[in-house]
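Forum: Protein Structure Q&A
Topic: Joint prediction for protein chains with partners

I've read a bunch of threads here and the consensus seems to be that you should model interacting components together rather than docking separate models afterwards. I'd like to see that in practice. Below is the full input, 681 residues plus whatever partners are listed. Could one of the regulars post the assembled result?
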Amino acid sequence: MSSMSKIVRTMTNILFPLTMIFGLYVIAHGHLTPGGGFQGGAIVASACALLVVTYGSRWVLGRIKEKRLSTFESIGAVSFITLAFLGLVFSMVFFGNFLAGSNLLFGTTPVTGSTLADFNTGGVLPLMNFAVGIKVVTGLFAIVLIMAYASSTKEWNS
Amino acid sequence: MTPLEFLIEQSPALIVAVPLLGAFLTSLIGRVNEKARNIFALFIVCLTGVLIAILASDVLTSGPRLYVFGAQNLQVPMVRIIFEVDSMSIFMAIITIILALVALVYSWSFLKEYDGLDKFYTLALLLITSTLGMELTGDMFNFFVFLEISCITSCALIAFWITEGEALEAAFKYLVISSIGALFILFSIGLLYAQYNALNIATLASVLQFSFVDKIILVLLVVVLAMKAGVVPMHMWLPDSYGRAPPSVILVIMGATLASFYGILRVIFTLYGEVLTTTMRFNLPMHVLVGWLLIALAVVTIIVGVLMALIQSDFMRLIAYVAVAEIGYMLLAVGTGFAAWGTAYATTALHGGVLHILNDALDIGLLFLVAGAVYYVTKKRLLDDLGGLARTMKYTTVFLLIGLLAVAGMPPLNGFASKFLIYESVYQLNPILAIVAILCSILMLAIFVKVFYAAFLGPQRNITASTGLKEAPRSMLIAMGVFAAAAIFIGLFPNYVLDTLVKPAVSALLNHADYIGMVIGGV
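Posted by a regular:
Agreed with the consensus. Here's the joint model:
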């Protein structure tokens, strides 16, 4: 798949950062708003898929290797389970929320009543959202990239 | 609380979590060093094995154990995700971890020359995770999630030799069949949830009304789990997958297959145990009807499996059909135990059936490993292309002899112990069933004598100076040796295994009230 016309490329250049920011927003606010690691990760991965469609899989593969993507995918999964194990270490329960109410990172206890959402709450939930986000972004991106590359290769057709 | 008590308390979660963590860490370690990755994967499985051993010693001495996720104290376990470990679950977990350990030791040499091993280890550990999860969980939806993980990972593992078209075809067939099956499971869990607002097995079992919808759910669950276990009308995926996957993969998938069989036991004995034994239909108690249906399926499975194995010329496919027949023996025992619920020989039948799960894992596993060793040395699958292997592969020959005698149920080996219990109890229900079972066992012996004669005796074939036929590598011999030693040990001391593992497991199956009381009584 080679790169597409100038119109498509220009629109991608404008839309790509916006989609990325929206996806990262959904991941980061997973504990406050609808969405979360998986949904936001899918949005970011769709922005990356836009790049693949517009510029072609060879162009993208020249800039990022699929091996590195799958390394990050493993890191995402490992950090998710590690957080669960840390819950076992610090609060004696597997998947225990040891950061909630500790006044550390994301440790504030939310105010009850109708107030504005406090980003600094949720304990380990935002961290787990980040881990899932990393995994989904890199996993989906790697799948799209490899499939696009495989279907663009001419030798397969013969 | 001492550290050991803490470990025992947390072990149901850790048994699933440790291989899950290991699955993703292995692929990271594989980037750095391949040998370190193999050692690490083995270490993770050993660690899981130690945790299972600790939990087993606790469960066998002080009764079933409940683990409630996300709660420090047990608060209303009915609405939480729970793991409920009784002697039956832990018995299955022990089988799974033995298979997994041997599979990883075996694949050390067997898969050395292939690439994509990072993904193999990740997928294998994920499959082990899901199998253990299916066995330990006390929650229907959780069971479905683990079943789905096992479907996807098994499918990817079956396609390990992706350059062979048949492996891809087998994997695709398995993917389609098992996803449809998993959807039916999800559908029936949805129906259960819609009726009773509960998802965990113990709560559902206590409130089950046995309405018309519940009967449909029973049929759906049993049919799908029987399909995953390879019972005959739904067995078509099994010979393809077993015949085309690498033997070390087959061992891990066999763990998942046996876990599906455990699912049938759990559904019939625990979930529907109360209603089936108390409801009447056509002037007969329901358990007699269900039991005889299972027996009918089992007899068809045994006969078809053995007859199909008789005409195969592909070594691994032949063993796969024998594996189908072996599942039939287990189902025959379970059907007998259920049809004759309450009698003394029903308990004997269940002892035989549950012991046969372990024996099937050991015997069929050993035969697959032998077939893998033959393939490793000769790169040939068809029996017609093999011959005279006993001249160079003397240890493998001995292991094949042990495996074939054990599968056929010959006295000094483990197959005899369980099959004899099955024959003895089935004879009391109906002599014809026992005759069919014994005849098919004899046919199995005939089949493997044919294999032994064709592949290991006679003149040596396809000797090429470049390859130079030799014995299988050491790690594969160790793996086969473990199975063979276990087969001989269980054959010589069947009472030891029966008393320590099988009898508690069967009594856990029969006393479903204890299983339910663990959750309902804990409110």
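The radius of gyration of chain A is 19 Å.
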